[in-house]
Amino acid sequence: MSQKRMNLASERRAVSRKKPIWASLLYAHLLNMPAVALASAPETGPCSLEATVPATIAAVDEDFDLLLDDGRRAALSGLEFPSLTMSGQGLRADALKRLSEWLAGRDIFLGALAAGPDRWGRLPVRLFAAKGEGADAPLISVGAALLEAGDARFRPDPAAADCARDYLPAEARARSAARGLWADPESRPVDPAAPQARATLLARKGMTIVEGTIRSVGESRGAIYLNFNEKRWDNFSVVISRRNLAMFAKAGFDLLTLTGRRARVRGLIETGFGPRMEISTPAEIELIDRASSP
User: Fold this and answer.
1) Contact between residue 265 and residue 208 where contact means Cβ atoms under 8 Å apart
2) Which of 1, 104, 108, 181 has its CB 3.0 to 4.6 Å from that of 129, i.e. a possible disulfide?
């Protein structure tokens, strides 16, 4: 065990307020995933244990906000939990129950992803908690565990951009298995080439995931357009403002060469010129074909 993990284990013992072991076993059972599905949390690098501090979760509220025992309120940045409309509220209630049983009353390690709270008074965070009991129990990413279980989808919050490399593979495994919220048609990606795709997209509320082939790339004075149909106005397109191009270039995206590439994008559907989606960060697009991608 490295010195950092030894220090973390020592801190965990010093502030220990553990739930009984049945709670961890119950959570692992409810997740219905292999015990080794998630690796121990990385010690350094993006979205790692680096610069985290010990804290205690007092409760998880009905909006999935984390209430800390020192009075602060935190939110797991980069996660979108099931909505109230999904499968008669069952998916949301089940996800909330599992998260509460895992974290409420437990000691965790918390890393702030922003300098201060958001407009709702919540501190955007990444979170790590013990998987099992005892000082040697591995610390895992709570966000990745929830995505792996299908209890949440990745949401490309700017604060969580560095977590995408850990979160997206976990989400992909749940999506491939149609686990959790991925069993609900409202959560699954929309194929813009499918029949009735236009009507489906125009009716979508909240974050929508679209997955298809970029048929052409267009330009205007202020934006780049990724068109998922030969005629932009006939179907779905993605809009990227030129003021954000440097950010995409830094992430390795050569937007003007994406014709023929298959992509997955996530964001809000605009209907005024629609359906279309404006994205502003590389975390909102994935290239998912076999060609080399960022």
Assistant:
1) no
2) 108
